[in-house]
Amino acid sequence: MTIDTESDRDLAEGASVTLKKGEGRTLKKGGFWVFDNEVAAVAGSFTNGGIVCVQDFDGYFMGYGFINTVSRIRIRMLTRRKDEKVTPALLKERVRASWNYRKQVIDTSSCRIIFGDADGLPGLTVDKYEDILVVESLALGIDRLKDLILKALVEVLKEDGIRIRGIFERSDARVREKEGLPRIKGFLSAPFDTNVRITENGIRYIVDVRDGQKTGFFLDQKLNRKAIWPICRNAEVLDCFTHTGSFGLNAASAGAKHVISIDASDTAIEQAQKNAEINGLADRIDYQVADVFDLLPELEKEGRQFDVVILDPPAFTKSRNSIKAAAKGYREINLRGMRLVKDGGFLATCSCSHFMDQELFARTIAQAARDAHVRLRQAEFRTQAPDHPILFGAEDDSYYLKFYIFQVLREY
Fold first, then answer.
1. Alpha-carbon distance 265 to 335, whole Å?
2. Given 53, 111, 240, 352, which residue is catalytic?
3. Which is more confidently placed, 327 or 378?
């Protein structure tokens, strides 16, 4: 069947959801989700994953959104405007607006083009790696419209002379099961070599879009990787949780004398070494497979000191229930990192957990500094790159990456 991305056909199903009195607080503050315990009633027939009207307890119109009776997130909002029907043409305009925004704020050779709620397309992520798209669909409603949205995206990119060579789906996250969806991975186009070459900050990478973490590469750190360049000139650098080597490669490209890059994954280190080789930087970077929590105390015992220590760990928590344990992990790793920094050297540290908010992360780092008997002078605070926009009113959904650069001082 041919997909008409310009159609004005109303995709809503005619059913309406009424909220309980006093509920919908997140929605009223600008958020995009309605939870199952906030719904009083559903009137009319609908298909799970379909688009329904949402109204307050008194009948006040609140918008249109996807419904999913399997998920705790019962409604994911698409629009708040009563006169704005959800049509294929509207979705294409959302896609075009997302692309136009990226063109204004970031290098688009490789970038995130669609970032879920922040782009008005809840549950959908699309990353562009040169002429390849990688899609992750995490919600039932958007999954039903995935083909339409991807076709619209290919058409919008073609308007700018960009021809997409292939599309790969990485909808293999466990969270799909909460939506009643199977975890899937595979081609949405003719097959292609899934080791895709990209260039970021002048550094070349091989991105494994089939088996790499998430969609293959952490595009959200693009500008943070560039931010370490000034502090890495002529420096001895320790790069922890290196994954595919990106921070270490940026340090070496900036003129670091020597870099040690560490990761617990043999596969990640093997990929990082390949990336170093294709950039002619292998002679300045030593790679080591090790658990960072075990290695840092050993380096401290040996009396090792570095001009720059970089901490880019995976999220230590993916729920509010484990936030105390996560804070303990962040405190420990930052304390160890600080002790390895020379007086006057620098610590670059981050958290990519939604639940480790900026205030808690800052308190945790401050506690680590007290325990390490150092003072921190903040040089920079950054968040995710602007192709992963933070949407005010929905920060809990869109704001996750916190990145600090500190000078570490022992003299006062």
1. 23
2. 352
3. 378
